[in-house]
Design a protein that fits this description.
This protein has 2 domains: 93-180, SRP54, nucleotide-binding domain (Four Helix Bundle (Hemerythrin (Met), subunit A), Up-down Bundle), CATH 1.20.120.140; 198-387, P-loop containing nucleotide triphosphate hydrolases (Rossmann fold), CATH 3.40.50. Helices cover 50% and strands 10% of the residues. It has 14 helices and 8 strands. Strands 3-2-4-1-5-6-7-8 form an 8-stranded mixed β-sheet, sandwiched between helices. A hairpin with a 7-residue loop joins β7 (371-375) and β8 (383-385). The protein is elongated.
Length: 397
């Protein structure tokens, strides 16, 4: 009997020893000595997730405080801005201008190159001048400005008698700059008054990028160290107020809006200006509705907004946002708005490869109002002051 039990005991002991060794080896591979999971490790992983990282090394200072915890200097804005949100940094003006000009050179210089090619031919006859005229009209320059430019170039080329490309380009540049009119005042009236902020109304039909332009303009003003407040007076388009508030939050700018759909836009605009006065802001930007189905309704609505706002202070700037790709249709829109309110400046959006550079001249001639800002894309910083000479140089480069 003992002879039978003895081998069985040895087998059981051998199995137990092998099993113990296997457990030790597995634990040794999974977790190095001194690094067994604990509740503190689990908490650290949660902290890491809150910071958006996939792995975190949490160290402690002598007082036992995790060093990866970021404490903002000012906690006053935490209720409006979630801790995980980071305010956008805004490019300085010169940086935006340089980038916009580079994009304009790449995308919208067909007008200049086409004219230079025509005017640099060995023989410039009537057929060439007809082509020059056609090129300008296709660029949305307008009939009257086109006639002026062609007549001026005819005379100068005839007198100079030169076919030198550099001389021809210089003549063309000078005449185009005259048409764009560098004498127009393109400054924005955004300086704070002694007792109130500057008030800027932004108007335009839906779909031209009006609300987005207000958000981008807020970024521009913030970059110039101005305290800005937004008023979401476009109360008829779904989500317009939320869209504007999102833009404001990205640059740390508060937004006054109504939580009621279809609220009175004049009331919202009035409250925005009142709040701006109380908070001693530099600029209040008011986004307005852009329904163009009924001209009379539009006139009544915008007129009321302006009248109500001006109970607290004169509106300093009324900017009309136009989509540069709409061409002559944009001119029709501009005329309607000019009848409604006193337009002080134009913002041209989407002035890229699909737009025609001549629309700048046509709009200014039609309204007698300067183009003050241009946008060349969907980027947050694709908005910059308009400069006549830089614009013409970009067309001819």
């Amino acid at each position: 009997m003992n002879e039978i039990l003895l081998p069985v005991v040895f087998i059981v002991l051998a199995i137990a020893v092998v099993g113990s060794l296997a457990v030790v080896l597995v634990r040794g591979r999974r977790t190095p000595p001194g690094m067994y999971p604990s509740r503190r490790d689990a908490d650290d992983q949660v902290v890491g997730a809150a910071h958006g990282s996939t792995s975190v090394d949490v160290l402690e200072d002598p007082d036992g405080v995790p060093t990866d915890v970021l404490v903002p200097d000012d906690l006053s804005g935490l209720e409006e801005t979630p801790p995980a949100q980071r305010l956008d940094s805004v490019d300085p003006v010169q940086g935006r201008l340089a980038r916009l000009r580079a994009r304009l050179v790449r995308s919208n210089n067909a007008l200049g190159k086409g004219l230079l090619a025509l005017l640099s031919r060995d023989t410039i006859d009537e057929d060439v001048w007809d082509e020059v005229e056609e090129t300008l009209l296709m660029a949305d320059l307008g009939t009257e400005p086109t006639t002026e430019l062609v007549d001026a170039l005819r005379e100068r080329v005839k007198i100079a008698g030169s076919r030198n490309p550099a001389e021809v380009k210089d003549m063309l540049r000078q005449e185009l700059v005259k048409l764009v009119d560098p004498t127009m005042d393109r400054s924005l009236a955004t300086e704070r008054h002694a007792d109130r902020p500057a008030i800027v109304m932004v108007v335009g039909v839906n779909g031209v990028g009006k609300t987005t332009t207000v958000g981008k303009l807020a970024r521009v003003l913030v970059a110039d160290d101005k305290d800005v407040l937004l008023g979401a007076a476009d109360t008829f388009r779904a989500a317009a107020a939320e869209q504007l508030a999102t833009w404001g939050a990205r640059v740390g700018v508060p937004t006054v809006k109504s939580d009621v759909d279809g609220a009175d836009p004049a009331s919202v605009a009035f409250e925005a200006v009142r709040t701006g006065i109380e908070q001693e802001c530099d600029v209040v930007l008011i986004d307005t509705a852009g329904r163009l189905q009924n001209k009379v309704g539009l006139m009544d609505e915008l007129g009321k907004v302006k009248r109500v706002v001006e109970k607290q202070g004169t509106v300093d700037e009324v900017l009309l946002v136009l989509d540069a790709t709409t061409g002559q249709n944009g001119l029709s829109q501009a005329r309607v708005f000019a009848e409604v309110v006193n337009i002080t400046g134009i913002v041209l959006t989407k002035l890229d490869g699909t737009a025609k550079g001549g629309i700048v001249v046509a709009i200014q001639r039609s309204l007698g109002v300067p183009v003050k800002l241009i946008g060349l894309g969907e980027g947050a910083d694709d908005l910059a002051p308009f400069d006549s000479e830089s614009f013409v140089d970009a067309l001819l480069d």
